[in-house]
């Protein structure tokens, strides 16, 4: 709360002050649970797809996305590995996690040293689901990676992202809005285990 008041006292949004408060909250984060609405836009195909679900994060390095909808699936990242299970087809895709952790930039470890990893600018302010937020634009230093640009909508009170937009080199982009966010509640040890039925086909990701 003191950090929030300090930033507000500046009168205008100060990039370094926001990053410092975001990092402080990130270092204090142990777990996060939330619902999400994910919208993927394909610019070339003029197509938009919306997915809903829930997400779990445990610091350090454990992440789970549960996707609802017509073809539900679950994606788990832990120990630098990624697994995605599609129950309908009994397929398990697994491999080395690469840019998938960028989906939660600004949470936990993903909030630390943002100024070193990205060129950061404050683009303005906008309310997300009624919560006033600053908009940060992040461009990876040195280029490369899965995303050429990331935008974070940072809640002015809690200093956590309430929305993320990730833009690929093709200009396709994914927007993720986080709802009903709960911080630092104890998660069961099994939260990041996939329960697989018999007959699952495994495909290694390259």
Q: What's the CATH class label of the domain at 2-53 and 99-185?
A: Mainly Beta
Strand content: over 45%
How many strands appear in the DSSP assignment? 12
> What's the pLDDT, averaged over the residues?
88
CATH homologous superfamily title of the domain at 2-53 and 99-185: Lipoprotein localisation LolA/LolB/LppX
Instruction: Tell me the radius of gyration.
Output: 17 Å
Please bin the fraction of helical residues.
10-25%
Placed side by side, the strands forming the largest sheet appear as 7-8-9-10-11-1-2-3-4-5-6-12
CA distance, first residue to last residue: 45 Å
CATH architecture of the domain at 2-53 and 99-185: Clam
**CATH topology-level name of the domain at 2-53 and 99-185:** outer membrane lipoprotein receptor (LolB), chain A
Show unreliable segments.
Answer: 1-12
Could you say which overall geometry the principal axes of the C-alpha atoms support?
Answer: globular
Specify the structural class. mainly beta
Following the backbone from N to C, one meets helices and strands in this order, namely: HHEEEEEEHEEEEEE
* DSSP helical segment count: 3
Main sheet characteristics: 12 strands, mixed
Overview of this protein structure:
With 206 residues, the chain is mainly β. The chain has a domain at 2-53 and 99-185: Clam (outer membrane lipoprotein receptor (LolB), chain A), CATH 2.50.20.10. It is 12% helix and 48% strand. It is built from three helices and twelve strands, in the order ααββββββαββββββ. The chain has a twelve-stranded mixed beta sheet. A hairpin with a 5-residue loop joins strand 10 (161-167) and strand 11 (173-183). The longest helix has 14 residues, at 15-28. It is globular. The termini are far apart. Residues 1-12 have low confidence and may be disordered.
């Amino acid at each position: 709360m003191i950090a929030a008041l300090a930033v507000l006292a500046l009168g205008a949004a100060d990039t370094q002050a926001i990053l410092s408060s975001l990092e402080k909250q990130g270092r204090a984060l142990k777990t996060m649970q939330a619902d999400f609405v994910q919208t993927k836009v394909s610019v070339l195909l003029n197509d938009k797809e919306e997915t809903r679900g829930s997400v779990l994060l445990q610091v350090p390095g454990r992440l789970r996305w549960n996707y609802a909808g017509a073809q539900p699936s679950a994606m788990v990242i832990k120990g630098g590995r990624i697994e995605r299970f599609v129950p309908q087809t009994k397929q398990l895709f697994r491999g080395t996690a690469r840019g998938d952790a960028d989906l939660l930039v600004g949470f936990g470890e993903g909030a630390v040293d943002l100024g070193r990893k990205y060129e950061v600018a404050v683009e303005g302010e906008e309310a997300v689901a009624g919560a006033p937020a600053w908009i940060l634009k992040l461009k990876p230093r040195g280029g490369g990676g899965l995303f050429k640009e990331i935008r974070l909508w940072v809640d002015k009170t809690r200093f956590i992202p309430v929305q993320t937009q990730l833009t690929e080199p093709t200009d396709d982009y994914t927007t993720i809005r986080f709802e009903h966010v709960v911080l630092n509640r104890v998660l069961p040890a099994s939260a990041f285990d996939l329960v697989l039925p018999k007959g699952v086909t495994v495909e290694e990701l390259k």
